[in-house]
Amino acid sequence: MAIQRNIISTEKARLILLKSQGLLNTEFGKGKTAVLAAIEHLGYIQIDTLSVVARAHHHTLWSRLPDYNENFLNELLADDKTIFEYWSHAASYLPMSDYRFSLPRKKAYSEGKSHWFNQDKKMNKYVLDKINAEGAMKTKDFEHKRDGAANWYEWKPAKQALEQLFMEGKLMVAKRQGFQKVYDLSERVLPTNIDLSLPTEKEYAEHFIKKSIQAYGIVSENEMAYLRSGLKSSINKALKRLLKEGEVTEVKLEDVKDMSFYTTADKLKSIEKIKIKNDVHLLSPFDNTVIQRKRVERFFNFYYMIECYLPEPKRKYGYFTLPILYHSSFVARMDPKADRASQTFYIKSMHFEKGFSPDEKFNLSFAKKLKAFATFNGCDKIVIDKAESKWKKEMKTLLK
After folding, report:
1. Which of 167, 62, 50 is nearest to 119 (CA)?
2. Strand (E) or helix (H) holding 177
3. CA separation for the pair 280, 303 (Å, rounded)
4. What would the CATH number be for the domain defined by 114-189?
5. CA dihedral defined by 203, 204, 210, 216, rounded to 10 degrees?
6. Secondary element (H or E) of residue 258
7. For the chain, which residues make up each domain, given as ranges?
8. Which tens digits make up the pLDDT trace of 282-322?
9. Strands 249-253 and 180-185, bridge-based pairing
10. Is 226 helix (H, G, I), strand (E, B) or coil?
11. Its pTM surpasses 0.70
12. b/e map of 288-326 (b: 16 or more CB within 10 Å)?
């Protein structure tokens, strides 16, 4: 079968991407079943510890599911066993239906790869034996004082062992208590009907190609192997095969003709049916849509980085700015802070992109979404600190 090539505008590529990401009229449903549907469709939801506003995993799902409840994730993890925690490009919630595709990474760790630190095989065995005998445990369950001239706490070596055994696949996160991981033997966590067969190189590569296109709509070859070492060659071979078989279609962008992207014929046909709503999205810095910064810059001409890791004098926009999507463009970035104790949501600063002027439609949509986001963060008051004076005044009126 001849390989099909298409040339489309960057604007149309944006629509495919945003539709595929669940940010344009994509219906996952309601309640807990919608959370599972979203995770299965997107492939993963990144977990992050920062809690300036709702943590990334909750924030990302709320952006797509207005009735999202934070309890849903732990119920899917601990009770339903339809998702699991492991590593995607980072620590993530993954659909249990994709479990076998976590096995190649686990095999690499069990064969000697270390997770950020040198292995202590005696400690690994001690931790594994203890959980086997006594049941599921948290890191703090390993804290105890040793007698001797130099008293010390062995929780740190135990924590490293827990993480290493987790990466090897011997342990899994059975549930969360608060934000604390509770580890147990994998065989006691996994559903009985789960496929434990190691995928072939062909299956593994095709999985990432198809998942990437499903989640993002239109992707480059490099994006398919994002932060996954050792996959480039097998993805290249699988991609050529899928192109010949017609399962994947090559695409060029009008203004990026020296680079190839890949999608499906169905996604290309759907472009004309995609409708843009007058919606604002306040996205997490770790949202699936923006996590690959080069893609965001290429498709949206929007340079974005999170500045919390920079020294304060080097920050331009703020500690934890959220990229703001309106229609199909990123138009601003907002530096927020949810003070749960006082139930006050602060906009520490608001920066609009050059060339964008907020009009009445934007302001109405933004105010509605901001109120909903503040409520989701447990806040019933909104305070705007640094912003353009006219916009700040208009927003105060709309937020009453």
Report:
1. 167
2. strand 171-177
3. 19
4. 1.10.10.10
5. 180
6. strand 256-263
7. 5-96+198-273, 114-189, 305-398
8. 999 999 999 999 999 999 999 999 999 999 999 999 999 99
9. unpaired
10. coil
11. yes
12. bbbbbeebbebbbebebebbeeeeeeeeebbbbbbbbbb
